[in-house]
Write a structure and sequence with these properties.
The complex is a heterotetramer of chains A (673), B (441), C (212) and D (111).
Chain A lengths: L1 H4 L28 H6 L3 H30 L9 H36 L7 H24 L24 H29 L12 H33 L12 H33 L8 H14 L15 H12 L2 H15 L4 E2 L2 H24 L1 H7 L3 H31 L5 H27 L16 H31 L40 H6 E3 L5 E3 L3 H4 L16 H17 L2 H20 L25 H13 L6
Antiparallel strand pairs in A: 2-3
Helix pairs in contact in A: 3-4, 3-5, 3-16, 4-5, 4-6, 4-8, 4-14, 5-6, 5-19, 6-7, 6-19, 7-8, 7-9, 8-11, 8-12, 8-14, 9-11, 11-12, 12-14, 12-15, 14-15, 15-16, 19-20
Chain B lengths: L1 H14 L5 H17 L13 H35 E2 L16 H30 L6 E5 L2 E5 L2 E7 L2 E6 L22 E4 L1 E5 L4 E7 L4 E4 L6 E4 L5 E5 L5 E6 L12 E7 L1 H12 L9 H8 L12 H13 L34 E2 L4 E2 L9 H9 L1 H4 L23 H13 L6 H6 L4
Parallel strand pairs in B: 4-8, 7-13
Antiparallel strand pairs in B: 2-3, 4-5, 5-6, 8-11, 9-10, 12-13, 14-15
Chain C lengths: L10 H4 L13 H27 L13 H4 L2 H27 L2 H31 L8 H32 L8 H27 L4
Helix pairs in contact in C: 2-6, 2-7, 4-5, 4-7, 5-6, 6-7
Classes of the chains: A mainly alpha (673), B alpha+beta (441), C mainly alpha (212), D mainly alpha (111).
The structure holds heme-A (2 copies), dinuclear copper ion and copper (II) ion.
């Protein structure tokens, strides 16, 4: 469809002829220009925007990482001052975690969940748009602290008090951290509730929970983790904000505040957060590996339950980040034990992926390379994680580069590689052309080599006693050689990332000359592959009735009497052609954008001048009010039913209306073929 | 179908040992680096030199081996499967592999096996954990002011931006918990050192770790793991050294600007040396003959004026009193009117026996050169403007803001040189042996 | 662990409702609201825990040693707690009236709910100011910071609830609130009751349980 | 959390099952009485038994749980509504209780 053909051209609006310009209460029309992107409520476009923004922040965080590595390439690095270094590594961590990997996962969740469960859209399309805009305004807000806040936050990504207090971090960096993450958190919370409802409620007929693709399952677990973990960090951030802006006494030890309270709250959130990072990737490779092994996923139910188990156990281990903080030997022992056993469900996953590959016919497309790379690299990180979980051992390891090695192996090796694989896998579905396989493979190998060169040596220097978060180290401690290697490695990663961007550009340029990939270029298994590529705006012409796990595959293949797989339908026969017209779609709206713009204003206001906060509050209020008054459906399409116009705060408020949004959509689900 | 699957799995695990070479390579590489580079890595966690660190090492080693094996197994399997089962394309290939979708026995097995491994590791962990948390401190006999007494070796370790203070209470047989309420207002200690601290060998020394500002972490890797210094808390920890020597440490909890430049050294001494050290530290600063009259007049509350052509040391003492004594304590000089330092943490290093140290400013500079001479250059740079050589927040302060770190006192070159002359008298000079030992090659 | 009964596709057919074409047959909005309330448990849990940890932490003195527990006015708080509790009753009655199609009663009950909520908030404002007068301000010590934060968060929730109730009231006045919209009222009600149960917890744990 | 994932049963039409107003009023009366008892514990002299702090705390906690339960099940309709609502809510509740109790324990008892 035309809409998705210009995915990256967010700012090119020449073509747009919008009859009804942005004005008070004027309803945006669907279209193709930039205005359409601003007002869209289509989960696919929102997903794409998440993806583009996430990649942007990947480069930002990556440049910060390169600065770190340059500084540490040799002893007594002089490239950054200590002050700037501390800001750079803090913002690197924050950017990568909250502005890159979480939104990239959100991109997949938004784009794929409705497709995989056979829905027209998410449950609350307008709230979905709201989530995106709030998230991006938080992200931009956070980064503007470089310009207007006197530098980035300088307290480390977990921002331990009291170092994060006003007395020890007087610049505005931490204020931006606190408020920026709160804004981004609201976005994730709304989106979590939205996607949970979507999965539970919007499934196509026959799509029982245990027929859902593993990816959808893992994303569902992720959303639950978000739903329950975000409020905890919200509390922590509020307390810190009150301390910094309004002189409260939460973390000031002088007056009886307890710094460990922050640590508990942060890590109660923080540990589930790491599974929020990894589970989407686990889901993605659970789609890729079966597809390119030509086998169903091995042990579907074990896969699902181990994912749930990981999500569940992730709540009981947080204090393994606090083994040396003086929480007492009993707590240490308890958390040490609970942590170890997370290896069990994770191991199940690893072995089940191997078993899927076992006896399969492995076709090494780029996506498959990334997926298999993920399995191997994550295992390395997971195993170093197990060595941290032994509390006595961790008292040597904690806050050294050995930890840095661990978490980059799990996050980059497990999370980022998997998501990259996902990009290659779903690219044709999203953009209508495949990424170039040759350059894809170059991308993979360069990244793999660079990644291991960067983070492998950190195990060594870490065990040799190199502390993390140090802006320089002295010569003579044995750190020189491996740090240089790591720096070289990081530039190889950067090269790999550049190759990826080149590939994106080249594949797009070449797309016209190559045959279109068709609905199902990989001979894949789940429902999204029965749609034309790129996905039409209305998703399904008719909502499919699901009869089995791997529904799409089963529409293509059956078994003969010898239990051998035989094709029963070609892709073209089985796929939908996207020709349906008049499918009722949720109407676009500008109000999510406007509402989201108010929040950073409130943030700046709290920091600099309360009047600004009043303006921001007014804007937000106006947006909520207008949102509530805006007819849910475009006046043209007479689908609306009576609406009350109460309006409320952004957490729960718009739900009522947005719900109405969705109902016509589902009502349009003709309930079968 | 299920059984074939099982068989094949087991067979391959045995017959393809050589495929694991890549994984084994990683382990070998790791081993190599550990063995190879360790000799000059002063902070190496894998070269324990004390009871506790040994025990931790004894736990880590088998677990590393298990983890290494799992790693080799998994990564080997990945590689092996990839090489064995790959096909170039599905184009024109109608043959599907056997569609095995699950095998409960197998899956339960690989749920249970790792669980069992983890149970074993858990038991080892708990045993070690209990053992290293046991308080086995025993009192030792020391002599204070010529009197023998039993001392439960305990040191109060106080972190602040960005150096460590060590406080010894020799009077108390047991350091009373009620004495420890406010790290900014600790009872006067018998010995106070900064950056370096002495411990007797062969006995367990209890540490009580706390902080005066933000969280720091005290870590001497060869002697034990870390313990965070949390303001408002007094966390128990312990260290122990088998042999005399100098053991390097580093603050490991991010504590702001100069976190990377916050180091420390434990100096383990045998009984005799330790006693000597105590005697030395217990005595007030020893000023040369020449300084005595000035010190006496200063202590009397009316410092004598020092003329321009007095000796460097005397001029240095005068400058010190004027510029430095508001923060630094020199026992025997300004102890009568000293009331804490005008910095955020309320304390600056005690300089009474400064020249007896071998490092300064968070143990990042050597106080003596390789040839054994006093390191005037680094010290001069430090006094000229500390922020230049160790980043801090002590200059250009906003109204009412207290410095964090040592400020630039804008001394002239001549004053700097004088002050250094004076500081050098705050001995006694450490032995050449010790000077050599504290150096990092 | 979840042992799911796999519902068969035809359960949908069984669901005769026009507006309920969802997999579970329940409304999206209500599901979202409950998810949100589940999440709110962790928010209030965190605030309550913070208070419990800090409730006896007095400042170093001399001006900041008084903590909220020293000056609780239990009889007063009991009354306002009772008021909030009863507002839950008026809330269900409003919903019930709307289901019957009795707009008059709906409005009356909505208004009384909002007003009871208003009385509660008024009580809270009074409590806060009297605390301030007695030298227990937000910035005085960890106990007071935690107290004001917890009760303040709760108060903000109640206030938002009042705004929602009043919006419903206005909608009803404009004739836009019909039995078709019971769900909207029900959802606002859920939020309202939730805020009430949180207070049930706070009242007991923070006010009534004696501090040594 | 996992309970919340359970496949819900198909909803029955809850609108018809709402209890009568009178039932609500009865619940409110019970709540009022309980609140009264709670407040009485504060006036130790009223009931000498409440001079014993543990008795007081036990009573208060019990009454609190019952009140909480009554509001949630009746006013919030959890007892008539789809199970999945209870699962979501109780999931959050149990998680919050568990996590925060452990955290507080780490401060108070396990230190
Ligand atoms: C994607 C994110 C992610 C993931 C998935 C994990 C997974 C794990 N993590 Fe990690 N972790 C982080 C991200 C992650 N971590 C981050 C960001 C930090 C640092 C934060 C900071 O300080 O800045 C951290 C820090 C961290 C610490 C604290 C270290 C310290 O600061 O002192 C600990 C301690 O226990 C730990 C443990 C674990 C464990 C046991 C797992 C387990 O889940 C791993 C399980 C996997 C396996 C074990 C491999 C596969 C299993 C098998 C093949 C079965 C057979 C295996 C055995 C029998 C052993 N992690
Ligand atoms: C998703 C999470 C994520 C990701 C992907 C990464 C990716 C990387 N990280 Fe990071 N990291 C963290 C999360 C992550 N990190 C966290 C949470 C911390 C802890 C922070 C803290 O302690 O508070 C941390 C800390 C951390 C440190 C320790 C700092 C310290 O303790 O002092 C280091 C040091 O080497 C490092 C390096 C890297 C490198 C080299 C990459 C590389 O993989 C980056 C690769 C990407 C690129 C290289 C971008 C490519 C860009 C281009 C190609 C554009 C080039 C264009 C121009 C030049 C115009 N990271
Ligand atoms: Cu002190 Cu880091
Ligand atoms: Cu963790």
């Amino acid at each position: 469809m035309a809409i998705t053909e210009e995915p990256l051209a967010l700012t090119s609006g020449e073509a747009a002829t919008v009859e009804r310009p942005l004005g008070a209460l004027t309803r945006p029309k669907g279209g193709n220009g930039w205005r359409d992107w601003l007002s869209t409520v289509d989960h696919k476009k929102i997903g794409i925007m998440y993806g583009v923004a996430a990649m942007f922040f990947f480069v930002v965080g990556g440049i910060e990482a390169l600065l770190i590595r340059l500084q540490l390439a040799a002893p007594d690095g002089q490239i950054l001052s200590a002050e700037v270094y501390n800001q750079v590594f803090t913002m690197h961590g924050v950017t990568m975690v909250f502005l890159f990997i979480m939104p990239l996962a959100a991109a997949f969740a938004n784009y794929l969940i409705p497709l995989q469960i056979g829905a027209r859209d998410v449950a609350f399309p307008r709230l979905n748009a709201l989530s995106f805009w709030i998230w991006i305004s938080g992200a931009v807000f956070l980064n503007t602290s470089w310009i207007v806040g006197g530098g980035g936050a300088d307290c480390g990504w977990f921002c331990y008090s009291p170092n994060s207090g006003l007395a020890f971090s007087p610049s505005h960096g931490v204020d931006f951290y606190v408020i920026g993450l709160q804004i981004a958190g609201v976005a994730s919370l709304i989106s979590a509730a939205n996607l949970i409802v979507t999965v539970l409620n919007m499934r196509a007929p026959g799509m029982t929970l245990f027929r859902m693709p593993v990816l959808t399952w893992m994303l569902l677990v992720t959303q639950f983790l978000l739903l329950f973990a975000l409020p905890v960090i919200t509390v922590a951030l509020f307390l810190l904000m009150f301390d910094r802006l309004f002189d409260a006494q939460f973390f000031n030890p002088e007056t009886g505040g307890d710094p460990l309270l922050w640590q508990h709250l942060f890590w109660i959130f923080g540990h589930p957060e790491v599974y929020i990072i990894i589970l989407p990737s686990f889901g993605i490779i659970s789609e890729i590996i079966p597809t390119f092994s030509r086998k169903p996923i091995f042990g579907y139910s074990f896969m699902v339950f181990s994912g749930i188990a990981i999500g569940f156990m992730g709540w009981g281990v947080w204090a393994h980040h606090m083994f040396v903080s003086g929480i007492g030997p009993f707590s240490v022992a308890a958390f040490s034990l609970s942590t170890m056993f997370i290896a069990v469900p994770t191991g199940v996953k690893i072995l089940n992926w191997l078993a899927t590959m076992w006896g399969g016919k492995l076709r090494f497309t780029t996506a498959m390379l990334f997926a298999v790379g993920t399995v191997a690299m994550f295992t390395i990180g997971g195993l170093s994680g197990v060595t941290h979980s032994l509390a006595p051992a961790d008292s040597q390891q904690t806050d050294t580069y050995y930890i840095v090695a661990h978490f980059h192996y799990v996050i980059f090796g497990g999370g980022v590689l998997g998501l990259m694989g996902g990009l290659y896998f779903w690219w044709p579905k999203i953009f209508g052309h495949c990424l170039n396989e040759f350059w894809g493979k170059v991308h993979f190998w360069v990244i793999l080599v660079g990644f291991n060169l960067t983070f492998g040596p950190m195990h060594v220097v870490g065990l040799q006693g190199m502390s993390r978060r140090i802006d320089t180290y002295a010569a003579g401690y044995g750190f020189e050689f491996w740090n240089l290697v790591a720096t070289i490695g990081s530039f190889i990663i950067a090269l790999g990332v550049l190759i990826f961007f080149f590939n994106v550009w080249k594949s797009r340029r070449d797309a016209a000359d190559l045959p279109a990939p068709g609905p199902d270029p990989w001979d894949a298994r789940s429902l999204e592959w029965m749609l034309p590529s790129p996905t039409p705006e209305h998703n399904f012409d008719t909502i499919p009735v699901v009869e089995s796990e791997d529904e799409w595959w089963h529409r293509k293949y059956g078994y003969d009497e010898n239990k051998r797989v035989v094709r029963i339908a070609t892709i073209e026969e089985a796929a939908q052609d996207g020709s349906a017209t008049g499918v009722h779609l949720p109407a676009p709206s500008f109000w999510p954008l406007v509402l989201a713009l108010g929040l950073p204003l409130i943030g700046y206001g709290l920091i600099f001048n309360l009047w600004l906060a009043v303006v921001g509050g007014a804007l937000t209020g106006l947006a909520i009010y207008s949102w509530a008054l805006e007819p849910v459906d475009d006046p043209d399409a007479d689908h609306g039913h009576g609406h009350d116009d109460h309006h409320d705060d952004d957490d729960d408020g718009g739900d009522d209306h947005a719900a109405d949004d969705s109902e016509p959509v589902t009502a349009g689900a003709e309930g079968g073929e | 179908m299920a059984t074939t699957q099982t068989e094949r799995l087991t067979v391959s695990d045995k017959s393809n040992f050589w495929r694991r070479i890549p994984g084994a390579g990683v382990v070998a590489l790791l081993g190599l680096t550990l063995a190879g580079c360790a000799s000059d890595a002063e902070l190496d966690t894998l070269k324990p030199e004390s009871g506790t660190a040994d025990e931790i090492y004894g736990l880590v080693l088998p677990v590393f081996i298990v983890a290494g094996l799992v790693l080799v197994l998994i990564c080997g399997a990945v590689l092996w499967l990839a090489l064995k089962n790959r096909v170039p394309t599905y184009e024109g290939d109608d043959e599907f592999p056997e569609q095995v979708s699950h095998n409960n026995t197998l899956e339960i097995t690989w749920t249970i096996v790792p669980a069992v491994i983890m149970v074993i590791i858990a038991v080892l962990t708990i045993v070690t954990h209990i053992s290293i948390n046991k308080d086995e401190a025993a009192a030792i006999e020391i002599e204070v002011d010529g009197e023998a007494r039993m001392w439960d070796p305990t040191i109060v370790v106080v972190g602040q931006q960005w150096w460590w203070e060590y406080r010894y209470y020799l009077d108390e047989f047991d350091l009373d918990a009620s004495m420890l309420e406010d790290p900014r207002d600790l009872p006067p200690a018998d010995i106070v050192t900064s950056g370096q601290f002495a411990i007797p060998t062969g006995v367990e020394v209890d540490l009580v770790v706390t902080s005066r500002d933000v969280i720091h972490s005290h870590w001497i890797p060869r002697l034990n793991g870390k313990r965070d210094a949390v303001p408002g808390r007094f966390s128990p920890w312990k260290i122990e050294a088998d042999d005399p020597g100098v053991y390097f440490g580093q603050c490991t909890e991010f504590c702001g600007l100069s976190h990377s430049r916050m180091r420390m050294q434990a100096i383990a001494m045998d009984e005799a040396d330790f006693q000597q050290w105590i005697d030395m530290q217990m005595s007030p600063a020893t000023f040369g003959e020449e300084l005595q009259p000035y010190v006496a007049s200063y202590r009397a509350g009316e410092p004598a004026t020092v003329s321009e052509d007095a000796s460097g040391v005397l001029r240095g003492l005068d400058t010190f009193v004027a510029q430095c004594a508001s923060c630094h304590l020199v026992d025997g000089l300004n102890d009568l009117d000293y009331d804490g330092a005008e910095v955020v943490s309320g304390s600056a290093p005690n300089l009474t026996h400064f020249a007896n140290n071998t490092t300064f400013a968070g143990a990042i500079f050597d106080l003596y050169n390789d040839d054994g001479t006093f390191n005037r250059d680094d010290l001069a740079a430090w006094i000229r403007n500390p922020n230049d050589v160790k980043a801090n927040f002590a200059n250009d302060l906003a109204d009412g803001e207290l410095p964090r770190g040592m400020p630039n006192r804008n001394l002239t070159e001549r004053q700097i040189s004088d002050v250094i002359d004076f500081l050098e008298t705050l001995g006694p000079r450490p032995s050449d042996e010790r000077i050599a030992a504290t150096e990092v090659e | 662990m979840a042992t799911a009964t796999i519902d068969s596709p035809d359960t949908h057919a069984a669901d005769g409702h026009d507006e309920h074409h969802t997999s579970t047959g329940i409304s999206n909005t209500k599901l979202a609201m409950w998810a949100f309330l589940g999440s709110e448990c962790l928010l209030f849990g965190g605030l309550i825990s913070t208070y419990l940890l800090y409730k006896t932490r007095r400042g170093p003195g001399p001006d900041n040693t008084t903590i909220p527990t020293d000056i609780f006015d239990i009889p007063f708080t009991s009354v306002s707690s009772f008021v909030l509790l009863m507002s839950s009753l008026t809330m269900v009655l409003a919903l019930s009236a709307l289901t019957r199609g009795d707009n008059q009663a709906t409005r009356a009950w909505l208004l009384s709910t909002a007003m009871l909520g208003g009385v509660f908030i008024g009580g809270q404002v009074y409590e806060f100011t009297s605390f301030l007068r007695e030298g227990v301000g937000f910035t005085h010590n960890p106990a007071s910071s935690a107290f004001f934060t917890l009760t303040g968060f709760h108060g903000v929730h109640v206030s938002l609830g009042i705004v929602m109730l009043m919006s419903l009231f206005v909608a009803s006045k404009q004739g836009k609130l019909t039995p078709k919209n019971t769900e909207t009222v029900e959802i606002v009600g859920l939020y309202w009751h939730f805020v009430d149960v949180v207070w049930i917890f706070i009242f007991t744990v923070i006010y009534l349980i004696p501090v040594e | 959390m996992s309970e919340t994932l359970t496949e819900p049963h198909v909803d029955h039409d809850d609108a018809h099952e709402h209890p009568s107003d009178w039932a609500y009023i009865k619940i409110a009366l019970i709540l009022a009485v309980f609140t009264g008892i709670e407040v009485l514990t504060y006036f130790e002299s009223a009931l000498p038994i409440f001079e014993n702090t543990s008795v007081t705390i036990a009573t208060l906690m019990f009454l609190m749980v019952v009140k909480f339960y009554l509001v949630a099940t009746w006013f919030m309709h959890l007892r008539f509504d789809n199970k999945i609502f209870s699962q979501l809510f109780v999931g959050g509740l149990i998680l919050a209780t568990g996590v925060y109790v452990i955290a507080l324990a780490a401060f108070e008892f396990w230190a």
